[in-house]
Amino acid sequence: MNKKISYLILAIIIISLGLPSLLKATPDWKSEINLKLKNSEYEEALVLIESNLPQLEKTEKQEALALRPFILNKLGQAGEEKKALIDYFEEFGQNQPVLEFLDFSIFSQVLEYWGNWLGNFPLVENLNFLVPTGAPEDSIPDAIRLGFDLSTPAYYKLILEGQPLEGGYWEKGPHLIELPIPYSFEKPFSLNLDIFLRTDQITVKKRVQLAFNVETRNLGGQDLLVQRQNAAPVKNLQGEVALYIGEKLIFKATKYVQKKIPMKITIPPPNPPGTKPYLVPQKEQYPFHGVSILDAISAISKVIQDWKKKPSATSPSAYDKKAEITFKFVNPEKPEIRSQITINVKSPKTELSER
Q: What is the C-alpha to C-alpha distance for residues 54 and 50, in angstroms, rounded to an integer?
């Protein structure tokens, strides 16, 4: 009985010592890969990489991920090759692998392969919010500005929540995207901006998620900062439009129900020519100028549409990079409700696109 227990304990020790070695990558996987590539055994080489990849350290993982698209290219699997390229660039960016263990005949081919893709893969890096330097804290931004670096020239197309915004051609280097700020912050929401990038050899979709976190509080009976009119309610009111920027009333238009005047008015005869009634009236008498509600709504809509079509002519000269934007908002219809909005930017993995 004691011997059986001893054998059992010994077996457990042997298994526990041997298990970690089983989980490690093949000690000489590089030599095996090199040999299989020299013999053009690409399918076997791919299997070897896939089996060792989960256990590789960072440096060796980079080398394995760099060889995978090369091997898939040799196998003629273009779709899988491009997905493997995305995997590499998403994790290691523009960092080129060393691959010094490869035979020169193979190394020269891999070097040529990666030299081509480093100049043709459109990689978006350093994605941040750009805020004009010196902008007041907690103030509503005039636009959402996203800045990033593009690794290579590419044609682009921007789509916001399924709606095309613009397209064109970007050079290599830093770029800025301006988006209109949505003036509705009743509850948390998110916006998806899809950036399609196309070069001669690949088209990818980079999704940028803008998450709006909204925290609201009701002031109730507290003193409100928004100015209110103390006048008595106006009778015969048909409609009213008010435009606020933050907490400041900018524009207001009121329309009243027209009624017949219940009295008779004697209209005197006209004065002789040259007197006041015959003078040419002023084209714009500001104190007496009225604006209808429909005209006001139309004007506001036109301003928003024009803003979307054409960005501001005067752009800030300097920006600060920020990971998030925070500002405060007051609902003009319910000024007792105050909101604090925080915008975060997230970027899921780049996808292969056929668009």
A: 8
Please give the structure tokens belonging to residue 188. 């948390």
DSSP H helical ranges for the chain:
2-23, 29-38, 42-52, 58-74, 78-92, 104-118, 293-309
76-108 burial, b at 16+ Cβ within 10 Å, e below that, comes to ebeebbbebbbebbeeeeeeebebeebeeebbe
Rounded Cα distance between 252 and 218, Å, is: 25
CA neighbor of 347 nearest in space, from 203, 202, 194, 197: 194
Reported as a single tens digit per residue, the pLDDT across 84-136 is: 999 999 999 999 888 999 999 999 999 999 999 999 999 999 999 999 988 88
Helix orientation angle between 29-38 and 58-74, rounded to the nearest 10 degrees: 20
The architecture of the domain spanning 124-209+346-352 is Sandwich (2.60)
pTM: 0.66
* CA separation for the pair 31, 42 (Å, rounded): 14
| HSE (side-chain half, CA atoms, 13 Å) at 162 | 0
Q: Residue 271 carries which DSSP code?
A: P
Whole-number Å distance between alpha carbons of 147 and 317: 14
User: Using an 8 Å Cβ cutoff, are 178 and 160 in contact?
Assistant: no
